[in-house]
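Example (one chain per record):
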Amino acid sequence: MIKEIRPVSQVDGAVYVPGSKSITHRLLFISSLAMGTSTIRDVLYSEDTIYTMEALKKLGIEIWEEEKGVIHVKGVNGRLDPPNERTEIYVGNSGTTARFLCAFSALAKKEVLITGDERLKERPMQDLLKTLMEAAVEVKFLEKEWHLPVIIKGPMVGGLFLMPKAPSSQYVSSLLIVGPCLKYGMELAIKEPPYSKPYILLTLEMMKRFGINYGASEDLRLFRIPPQPYRAKDITVEGDASSACYFWAAAAATAGKMSVVNVYPNSKQPDIGFLDVLKRMGCYWERDIIGLTVRGPAELMPVKVDMNDMPDQVPTLAVLALFAKGETVIRNVAHLRGKETDRIRAIVNEIKKIGGKAKEIEDGIVIEGDGGNNLYGAEIETYNDHRIAMSFAIAGLRVEGIRIKGAECVKKSFPEFWETWERVCYGKA
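Predicted structure:
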């Protein structure tokens, strides 16, 4: 599918974004381990979260839908017992599903085979799998060492876990979620500071809401979780801050106004921090009667910013930087090379394709913006990466002839993105 984006003089709208992908994933795994039946409202149905739901069902977790967007999860009180001696699970290109499943599966005495598409098989897993193996979990590699597909067999009993480094916060979250269910609890020590710390804090917040007590050092390198039950909960998933950012960026790019109804300034989602990046670029934002509203400036300013805490918004910022005047430097995001694609290289390639100036640096990107005056239309290759597709839609609001190739990849996190984009940016009913 190729989606052509039409320029607009100025956006002015309000949007209700789907539920948070990050929160949905965490609530699904946590409620599966809880004592009792949980209700999750405004759950996100996207390609990635559906992979998670289907994986949990295969492992014997009862999940059913009461009405659209409301699901019930019958927890197993930390005792995972899959129906088959070996359960095979395919997770597509969902890194979160795969990594969370690794520690989750280690609770069972039976074999769980986890695999995904060819790109996911290339993505790093070593530090997580090594930590599990040192905790006496059986891990068998079926193709390439330290990569999917793997067979995991427990039961993991807990104690001291030593992780050399955590190039993905998902490694840490994967372990933390199962910590309370282990016979001896969990003491987790990470040798090097983990990446994307706000995502770890988000995991801890969700665990806390289900009744878990824990200890964590300020630098998030030491954790102590005693054995204890998760308690079932009725909980609502807040709107996805990552999805909201594309609409706020649309306002920034067009000197317009955009309100997101169901995302809040006190959110624990890491990408809420993008509002402060927009503020540094000259935008104004406030919580008003409609929602969280961003107003774009007459002229965007370039920024130099560490985006380690918000890696998903690097493509958004890179595209937006084309419409500022001057040099924008995005740093401390080397781990983006191991995402759905090598995001750093992909962003630079596609920026150059529309006449922008960008270059890779070791841990990020430098963009030389000229206010967008010399950009031109082109067909954008998405590399099957939803973040690339949605980010370059922003460029199309200012530049004639931007066409997004493989636009259907947005189903990974925001299946109705293009319909919502048309309605909100162009005022279509």
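Caption: The chain has two domains: 2-17+238-426, 21-224.
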